[in-house]
Amino acid sequence: MSEVERQGDGPDRGRAETGAWGPIGLRSPGRMRPLAPDTDAAGGPFPAPPTGAPITETTISELLSRPQMWGFIATTACVEFCRGALFISLLPAYLTQGLHLSVAGLGMVISAQYLSDTAFKIPAGWLVDRFGPWRVLLPFLSLAAVAVYLMPHAHSIVPFIALGVLFGLGTSANWPAVLSGSIHLGGMHARASATSLTFLAWLAGGGIGPVLINFLVGRSFSTAFLVLAVVITGAPVAAALGLSGMLSRNSDPPWRAPQVLPVAETLTALQANLRQTGWLIPGMFIQMLALGIVLPVMVPFARGHLHLTQPQYGVMLLAGGAVTVLCLLPLGRVVDRWGSKGFLVAGFALAGAAVAIIALGSGEADLLWRVSLLGFAYALILPAWNGLTVGKIDAERRGLLLGVFMAIEGLGEAIGPAVGGALYQRNYLLPFLVTGSILVAVAAFYLVVPARKFRPGGGDAR
What we know:
This protein is mostly helical. Helix content is 73%, strand content 0%. It has 2 domains: 1-23 and 58-247, Growth Hormone, Chain: A; 261-462, Up-down Bundle (Growth Hormone, Chain: A), CATH 1.20.1250. It is globular. The model is unreliable at 1-56 and 458-462 (pLDDT under 50).
């Protein structure tokens, strides 16, 4: 038995079960091994079932019975509520109408936030592996809260750019920490269900935030900033409760005691894991590039070519989001049981077709079923994609690898809007047709990838 395993069975293990989440241990690269079916998300052993007995799967209700899961849901909902409200509704109005700054300046603020969030995900993920999610979330989310508190007191573009960077830094740790922590709670056999819960929080917070703040902006900028200050405070408060151990239960799986490797050995292990998962990287970039292409053209297309009113456009967004929310959890359970490949192929093919035919729609009723179809496709993709990527990441570097993957996705999403804007200038249908073609091509790629590629590392067992 290794030193790390002895520590996991000794006094440190008991403390981790009853206290705050501690660091994840690291093995040396020479002892990297696939996750066995009886290991949890942190690499620690589940209680071994009797010989021949099936492994008990963690259900959605069991995940929701764990206070730490609600802590992760709370931080995600608060962060995404504020991010969407700030950069979709409040700042575009406040900077251009309230402070009379240029649209170019607004773009710089939004880009600064986005690039900061992307750039710091990798070091934030490494810190999650080293110290555990709660110890990282508390200081990072506190920085995001400080940025929101200071925004009403900024009156020129330079302070807003600086606060955008600070907000991006503060939120960069949320996804690596929340995904690592929720998968750790549910175990590898329920990874798609666990990630689906956090993505539900993302959809809910990110959807409600811009809509609610949009109503407040017309009345008072100060009231809108006050509401965001209250909401963002909930994120570090939830992290503080998690760190204190108040959200922990004896039944929660413990984190291993740390075994810190030198930087060179950590990089060697990271390279080995990236070689195993390298075939996923082009897909990460391309699929987010495709989605980014349509983001900046949706509103001008809906208003200028489909002649939808603002309420009608809101109905379209709600329809697609509602279908995703309703289908996400049950499909997560199905993915946990049957594996990711078939759902990825079906989801991307369906999404590509839906994006293309949305551009060919006319009235509100005609668009409703097309947008609902896209929402269903997204509900297929989310749990399957997250189940696949998480299942192929070495458990002891999960936060770091998630940070790398999210940074790659972020680059695709950052480049996409520029491409979409250029295509829209040529022909308003081009962004949708190009995006649809890319998504169908991604589906075809996953279709021809051998099934064994979905299994290395003990990840997706099917």
